[in-house]
Structure formats: C-alpha cells, structure tokens
Design goal:
366 residues; alpha/beta; Dehydroquinate synthase-like, alpha domain; seven-stranded mixed β-sheet; two-stranded antiparallel ribbon; 11 strands; binds nicotinamide-adenine-dinucleotide; binds glycine
Length: 366
C-alpha cells in the first residue's frame, strides 16, 4: 500500500522562525513541496556516501527548477564522523563553490547529516537558510525538528553546536523503505519516548501497533511520524532553547549519551543507546517514586519488542557517573536526569549517586 502524495502538515510555531513539517510518501520529487524555501541562486545538498546514491539525484532534479546551481556534497557516513573535520568539508564546499549568504543548504540524510548541516548553516557567513530532508525514522520523528544542531567532541556528545531553525522539514516516508532494520528500531526508541513523557494514549497506540511499525506498515509509520512531530512541535513551541520543558525530550539520553561515548561513537546507534537509557531512567523514576514496577516492566517490554537492547553495557558505575557529569544538563558537576514523575509527565531531577549506582547494578550486563 502506498500513501497519497499529498502531504500532511504539522506547523511548528516559533514566531518569525515558524516552519512547516510536511509528512507523506514520495514527496522528494514534487517541487511544490519546497514552496516555503526562500529563492536563491545556489543550493547545496549535504548528504553522505550511503544516502547519496539512493536519493540525491531525485532531490537535485526537483531543486533544479528553483535554483540555477545545485551542488551535492557527500560526507563520510557515521556518528564517528560527526566532528570538526567533517563539518569543515561543508565549509570547504560552500567556499569552493563560491556560495553566497542566500545559498540554501539541504540536509539529506539521518540525524548526523542533519545536525552537521544545520550547524554549518548556522555559522556559514553567520547564518544561511537550510532545509531538513530527513531519511531515517529517528530524524523524521526527532532530530530534524526543533533546530538543535551540533557536532560531537571526544569528551562529550553534541557538545558543540547552536540552536538554528530550518525553513522546512520534509519527511518523505518512502525513503524509510531502504532503512536497515537496526536503524528503524533506533528510530522507534525516539517514537516510544514521547509516550511516557507526554502522551500515554500515544504509548497505548504504540503498544498496539509495534508489530506494524517494525513491519513498516505505511499507515502506522505515517501516524507515528505525525504524532511524534506534533508532540515535538508543541514542546519546542513552548521552550525553543531548553530553558525548562524541552529538557523532557532528553528522557533516557543522560544514560544513553554515556553509553554512546563510553563505548565509542558508532558502536551502539544513538537510538539504541536512548532505548536502553530509557530503561535505566524508568528504573530511576521508580526509585524516586514517580512510577511503579509494572510501568517499568511495560516500558521495558515495549522497547524490547521494538528490537532495541534493554541491558546496558558494563562500563562500570564510576565511568558512567564520570561520563554523565559531562552531560549538558549537569549543573556545577551535579548530574540531572529526566525522570517520569507520573505516567505521561516528566521532570528534571538530580538523584543521589548511591541510587544511580543501584540502577546501574540492576540494569548493566554482568
Ligand atoms: P544517522 O544519521 O547515522 O543515520 C543512520 C544510518 O542510516 C546511516 O548509516 C545513514 O547513512 C543511513 N541512512 C539514512 N537514511 C537512509 C535511508 N533512507 N536508507 C538507507 N540508509 C539510510 O543516524 P540517525 O539515527 O538518523 O541520527 C542519529 C543522530 O541524530 C545522532 O548524532 C544524534 O545525536 C542526533 N540527534 C539529534 C537530535 C536533535 O534534536 N538535533 C535529536 C535526536 C538525535
Ligand atoms: N532531541 C531533544 C531535543 O530536540 O530537544
């Protein structure tokens, strides 16, 4: 079954930085879908060596009607390349092609390409327009929306970046057909996240449809992407720069980022680390009194059914604590976790190191 080519639209309301998120199947080939993008002479499609052979030609053809020159830059693929050296390749291309400050950047790929292209757009000539064309489930439900851009540092994940909003997010669901199963599961972690922190009815729906989602049933994927984008747009619309509420979107991420950087970027996928991190954060929430054991078991079972790991790697409690202190939410060396204070609602809290050690002892591989 294919969905209609006419996209659904979720608006993210940020005053003069508002933009549409278009969601539908086979959107890449339709020039009208790019109507929200400012006119310019030049476009640069930033993608990677995996995504380029799949979708760069189609996007380039579509954009050729709107831009006199459309360049394509292929970055090396992978979280391990989300760094200064790779970011600099984007600046090399922009300067090498003589791109001016109206040049529009198109991020065609997953969250790695999206975060790096967004950061390049934020800083090239102090800011040029950019468009997110996410091609992973994770990027469609989370990273392409909300304007967080970043690269990693060997000492910490996403530590260098900027808030910078795109002009448009175009989620072409047809691109998910080529996604490896492990990457689909990684995206499901971020879909599941929205339930416990914000919308228990959505969690019920995900539970009922998890097999359809894993099987890539188009209507199920379309609803999951749309509802996730709606929730993210509501949260970011209230707190663009993470002064408060937006932090709830980091449920599972404090443990998850420690897993990612502790193992070495790219060993576990970001979504895998977040999925497992949510299991640990749920246990911590239980110890802090926000949820009961049945809730933790329910969430863990769903994460497992999504094809995600639920047992954390044995990095050692001290290493976990050390890594988690580098988290952006930490204040004066105190780790702050997003925990569930009641089903469907999350808050940020610190927890005694002893309690965190107990959670790690319970949830890590022997
Ligand atoms: P990714 O960008 O590494 O993509 C995953 C893999 O899938 C890559 O190998 C990629 O080349 C490949 N791929 C992409 N689209 C494909 C397609 N349609 N068919 C086949 N292969 C395809 O990883 P991701 O999970 O998309 O994103 C993770 C990144 O996103 C992390 O760096 C994380 O920090 C970041 N992130 C950012 C935010 C934010 O708000 N900015 C939110 C969540 C995650
Ligand atoms: N993925 C967390 C955020 O966008 O705030």
């Amino acid at each position: 079954m294919r969905l209609s080519a006419s996209p659904e639209c979720v608006e993210i309301q940020l005053g003069d930085r508002s933009y549409p998120i278009l969601i539908g199947s086979d959107l890449l080939g339709e020039p009208n879908n790019f109507a929200a993008v400012t006119a310019a002479a030049t476009a640069l499609i930033v993608t990677n060596t995996t995504v380029a052979p799949l979708y760069a030609a189609a996007l380039r053809r579509t954009l050729a009607g709107r831009f006199s020159a459309v360049h394509v830059l292929e970055l090396p693929d992978g979280e391990a390349h989300k760094d200064w050296q790779t970011l600099n390749l984007i600046f090399d291309a922009l300067l090498g092609h003589g791109c001016d400050r109206k040049t529009v950047l198109f991020a065609l790929g997953g969250g790695v390409v999206g975060d790096m292209t967004g950061f390049a757009a934020a800083s090239y000539m102090r800011g040029v327009p950019f468009v997110q064309v996410p091609t992973t489930l994770l990027a469609q439900v989370d990273s392409s929306v909300g304007g967080k851009t970043a690269i990693n540092h060997p000492l910490g994940k996403n530590m260098i970046g900027a808030f910078y909003q795109p002009q448009l997010v175009l989620c072409d669901l047809a691109t998910l057909a080529t996604l490896p199963p492990r990457e689909l599961s990684a995206g499901l972690a971020e879909v599941i996240k929205y339930g416990p922190i914000y919308d228990m009815r959505f969690l019920d729906w995900i539970e009922s449809n998890i097999d359809a989602l894993v099987a890539r049933e188009p209507a199920a994927l379309a609803y999951a992407v749309k509802r996730s984008c709606e929730i993210k747009a509501e949260v970011v619309g209230q707190d663009e720069r993470e002064i408060g509420l937006r932090a709830i979107l980091n449920f599972g991420h404090t443990f998850g980022h420690a897993i990612e950087s502790g193992l070495g970027y790219g060993q576990w996928l970001h979504g895998e680390a977040v999925g497992c991190g949510m299991v640990l954060a749920a246990h911590l929430s239980q110890r802090l009194g926000g949820v009961d054991k049945a809730f933790v078991q329910r969430l863990t079972a769903l994460i497992e059914r999504a094809g995600l790991p639920v047992v954390a790697p044995a990095l050692g409690a001290e290493r976990y604590l050390e890594l988690m202190r580098i988290d952006k939410k930490s204040e004066a060396g105190e780790i702050r976790f997003v925990v569930i204070d009641k089903p469907g609602s999350a808050v940020m809290r610190s927890a005694p190191d002893a309690m965190v050690r107990e959670v790690l002892a319970q949830c890590c591989a022997a």
